[in-house]
Amino acid sequence: MSRPVSHASRTTPAPAPEVSGGFLLPDGGFLPKLAYMAQRDLNGGTMDWDKLRVFHAVAEAGSFTHAGETLNLSQSAVSRQISALEESLNVPLFHRHARGLILTEQGELLYRTAREVFAKLSMTEAMLSESREHPKGPLKITTTVAFGTTWLTPRIREFLAIYPDIQLSLLVDDSELDLAMREADIAIRMNTPRQPDLIQRHLMTLRFHIFAHISYLKRRGTPKTPADIDNHDIITFPDEARPGISDINMLLDLGATGQAVRKPLLRINNMYGIFRAVESGLGIAVLPDYMVEGRPDIVKLLPEVETPKLESFFVYAEELRHSKRIAVFRDFLVRKVSESVF
Q: What phi and psi values does residue 167 have, to the nearest 5 degrees?
């Protein structure tokens, strides 16, 4: 006769001493009262997980109606769950307005805790679902619009042909997503990562040069010296929206004689947009070499001029260091980088 499986009894940690507005933690830190109560109730098993899940969805969606669509619940059912949670905590979590919901100060505290909890649950679920023998499951990758659209996307087909059980999502965004909160699993960053608790590997050095489309050069001629740029149409970033690349707007000053102030014909706050402007024959610009690889119709100008460089990194959360999906994509990416010109 089989014996029943025994489970270790849950122990509740000793309560932290309460001070004005919150609690002192054993390490000397301070935790606001509502956040402490939420963590205590989650650890002790007294908080209703369904209500917390509904609260998290409402905070993300900004309305009962949209949260109900996500959760497949009616608006009234969502509203009842939130009211019950507010009653159990004895604090208001949302300001109700005609145009939607806004988190109260107490709601913000609970939302930060809930967001962290559900992010860790999502990460754990993904790791548990991954096969030890063959990588499978969801994998979210984020990188810049320029790199993601022009270099990475054309190579994804080969990766998915090798690993068809990986459900890949590519999030192209020039702002940095939060890997610790599982907004993405992997980031290909064009700067040194600043978030703590991230594993990073140097991927490549991106080199930039001055380029123009052959149609533009036929129409306007080819600059032979930096001073010749005075007589050409240039495309740059806006001063207030330059990426973290030194001298990316070098065409404004390179070889300038001082006789006239150079003004860009067009300013664009996105590298891919600048590339498309050059591709259309609009003018000359500084672009990364990888964007024009295999494009004989886009010509490198003044190759002897010193131009910017940018270091790129492969980054992921420390919790995913044993993920086979991360490992196989990293190895694939390193191989494709070695085959390319940067």
A: -95, 100
Number of Cβ within 10 Å of residue 287's Cβ equals 26
* Strand ranges, E, within the chain: 18-19, 22-24, 30-32, 94-97, 100-103, 137-143, 166-172, 186-189, 198-213, 235-236, 266-267, 285-288, 298-301, 309-317
Angle, CA 31 vertex, CA 27 and CA 34 arms, to 5°: 150
DSSP string covering 256-304? --SSS----SEE-SSHHHHHHHHHTTS-BEEEEGGGGTT-TTEEEE-TT
Read off the pLDDT of residues 262-310 as tens digits, 9 standing for 90 and up. Answer: 899 999 999 999 999 999 999 999 999 999 988 999 999 999 999 989 9
pTM of the model: 0.63
Cβ-based neighbours of 37, under 8 Å, separated by 6 or more: 89
Residue with tokens 């390490």: 27
Specify the higher pLDDT residue, 184 or 133.
184
d(CA 80, CA 84): 6
Which of 153, 145, 152, 142 is CA-nearest to residue 178? 142
Q: Are strands 309-317 and 18-19 parallel, antiparallel or unpaired?
A: unpaired
Q: At what angle do helices 105-129 and 49-61 cross, to 10 degrees?
A: 110
Instruction: Say which residue, 143 or 14, is predicted with more confidence.
Output: 143
Q: Which two tokens stand for residue 291?
A: 């964007």
